[in-house]
Amino acid sequence: MQRFSLLSLLKNSLSGHTDWKPFWRDAAPKQKYDAIIIGGGGHGLATAYYLAKNHGITNVAVLEKGWIGGGNTGRNTTIIRSNYLWNESGALYEHALKLWEGLNDDLNINLMFSQRGVINLAHNQADVRESIRRVEANRLNGIDGEWLTPGQVKEFCPIIDISRTARHPVLGATLQRRAGTARHDTVAWGYARAADSLGVDIIQKCEVTGILRENGRVTGVRTTRGTIMADKVGVVAAGHTSVVAAMADIRLPLQSHPLQALVSEPIKPIHPCVVMSNAVHVYLSQSDKGELVIGAGIDTFNSYSQRGSFHVIEHQMAALIELFPIFSRVRMLRTWGGIVDVCPDASPIVSKTPVKGLFLNCGWGTGGFKATPGSGWVFAHTIATGEPHPLNAAFSLDRFTSGALIDEHGAAAVAH
Amino acid sequence: MLRISCPWCGEREEIEFSYGGQAHVAYPKDPHAVSDDDWAQYLFMRDNPKGLFLERWVHAHGCRRWFNMARHTVTHEISAVYKPGEPPPAGGK
Q: Does A209 touch chain B (CB under 8 A)?
């Protein structure tokens, strides 16, 4: 891997930046691998990277039907936080946040990770009680969290309207100072580059069309670029997980929905943090380029279309303008949608399956980006050892039979 | 936004309706005789096809009655709307 440093930057600037090498090889599929990862998003690439780095399994293929960075990894609103309510989720997301804090060095790439703080607004008494409960739960789990009064919210984010006559009055907010944002597609590129340097084959334009099994064991996959054999297959296909799992006759509790986001024209730095509001579906940050990055809610119906309905955006923008009257004349530049796989308890599934050697990492719903490093870490462990890591043991597929659900609808922060 | 034809009220905008998920998921005949696995199937497991889907909707801001619909989950084309108790169109999943 061509490492980035001040020296390499200077050297390459002298040659007009024409000597930089591609981040990863354009690999063609081999006939057999030790492990196949279906899905070349952030989670899949992180899984491949940690399989190689933590477990020494380097004969790995990542199969991506589109191109790296073209799916949900490049379509989200880049928010990173770990302020989830329950012990299981708190531990998993906090593990991810700790990995984020060292990831620039680990991947030798600038992820533009910015711990600018995330606030979650409370607009009514129920929100207030629930938010304070969550702050206390976080602190008991060693996760930083604070409760802010309306005045403190105004201090932390001066452009927000906290007047008592506001349509959505701000009664306070939770703050996680270590939370923030990162440059999303660099996360995919960084993991792809690091995994490739350890020997992982990243195979794009390769869609899986079948899962091969023998006596209840997985033996490989059929793809648009031929049959590829492997004794271990990890499915990390986000919104398309149900489609892939159906190839192995596995029925899942997932429903796929479009989730939309939009950006404004670039403006001067005005918004210093990330603001989220569960009740009115606003989440807002400002990119380093100056665009306001805004998330909307999901369309209620099932869809694989990668586009959402306009009325969802309209509803969301109405609430945004109430909270931030200063943005009433800002023009929006682009909107887009991604397909998210939503679980009934708004928690992921990182699990073994009834098919031996076949593993699932899905159900991250509207909030998978923040978990990327942690998700890859525990899924690599699950694939390498055949058993879940202590951090993902509770996120098994069995929980829908045992009833041990992990209800994170409150902390998921996007209406499902 | 979808334009949905309520079988009782006619065509209306989607915002008048609420979504009810997969259609034709029958309540177990004898709930006491159902295993944990079967409960999980009934409560949580759902088809999630990329293609034609039979789903329930309710005209929440209209007649407030439930009905079923066949819709394509990629094109969003609505190929059939039918009342509860009526059989689904052929080819649905």
A: no
- Taking the CA of residue B56 and the nearest CA in chain A, the distance in Å comes to 10
10 Å Cβ neighbour count for A100? 25
- B4, B18, B46, B48, best to mutate vs chain A, most A CBs in 10 Å: B48
ipTM attached to this prediction: 0.94
CA distance A62 to A73: 15
CA Rg, chain A, in Å? 21
- Contact flag B45-A252 (C-beta cutoff 8 Å): yes
Q: Report the alpha-carbon distance of residue B82 to residue B87 in Å, rounded.
A: 8
Contact B74 A303 (CB under 8 A): yes
Q: Where are the alpha helices (DSSP H) in B1-93?
A: 36-43
**pLDDT tens, residue order, chain A (416 aa):** 889 999 999 999 999 999 999 999 999 999 999 999 999 999 999 999 999 999 999 999 999 999 999 999 999 999 999 999 999 999 999 999 999 999 999 999 999 999 999 999 999 999 999 999 999 999 999 999 999 999 999 999 999 999 989 999 999 999 999 999 999 999 999 999 999 999 999 999 999 999 999 999 999 999 999 999 999 999 999 999 999 999 999 999 999 999 999 999 999 999 999 999 988 888 999 999 999 999 988 999 999 998 899 999 999 999 999 999 999 999 999 999 999 999 999 999 999 999 999 999 999 999 999 999 999 999 999 999 999 999 999 999 999 999 999 999 877 656 54
Residues of B in contact with A339 (CB under 8 A): none
Task: Tell me the residue length of chain B.
Answer: 93
